[in-house]
Amino acid sequence: MTKASIVRKIHAKTGIQSPAVKIIVDEFMNAIKSNMAQGHNIYLRGFGSFYVRRYAAKRVYNINQDTYSIHPERRLPVFKPGKTMLRGVSQKPLPSKG
After folding, report:
1. Which distant-in-sequence residues (6+ apart) come within 8 Å of 32 by Cβ?
2. Which residue of 6, 13, 33, 36 is surrounded by the most CB atoms within 10 Å?
3. How far is it, in rounded angstroms, from Cα 33 to Cα 42?
4. CB-based contact 73:54 (threshold 8 Å)
5. Backbone φ, ψ for residue 71 (5° rounding)
6. Residue 94 CB burial class (10 angstroms; 0-12, 13-18, ≥19)
7. CA 24 – CA 14 distance, rounded (Å)
8. How far from 79 is each of 9, 60, 96, CA to CA, in Å?
9. pTM for the structure as a whole
10. Parallel, antiparallel, or unpaired: how do β-strands 67-71 and 58-62 relate?
């Protein structure tokens, strides 16, 4: 599913014009992105949580060059689905490929 298909589904369900829905979807995604960039977590009850996982800097050995290098600390975005979503997804049969 793409962002455009999400916009089309919301438009079909609500009747709100597609350009307005696109703006709302874009702003929703920007809000998540900007808050996570600041290190904040986002909790959407019944859907899941977006949070930032931090990985410490580490010293890594390169066996080919017989040297050590330092990998800097990094932060990665993570999504953890909520229980309601997990139940909804696990109970639906997968579509057949063919």
Report:
1. 42, 50
2. 36
3. 10
4. yes
5. -90, 125
6. exposed
7. 13
8. 23, 27, 27
9. 0.71
10. antiparallel
> pLDDT digit string (tens) for 40-88?
999 999 899 999 999 999 999 999 999 999 999 999 999 999 988 888 8
The answer to whether 78 and 51 are in contact (CB under 8 A) is yes
Q: Please tell me the distance from the alpha carbon of residue 3 to that of residue 30, in angstroms, as a whole number.
A: 13
Q: Is 22 helix (H, G, I), strand (E, B) or coil?
A: helix
Question: Which two structure tokens, joined as six digits, stand for 50?
Answer: 């977006």
Whose CA is closest to 77, among 40, 50, 44, 43? 50
Tokens standing for residue 23: 């703006």
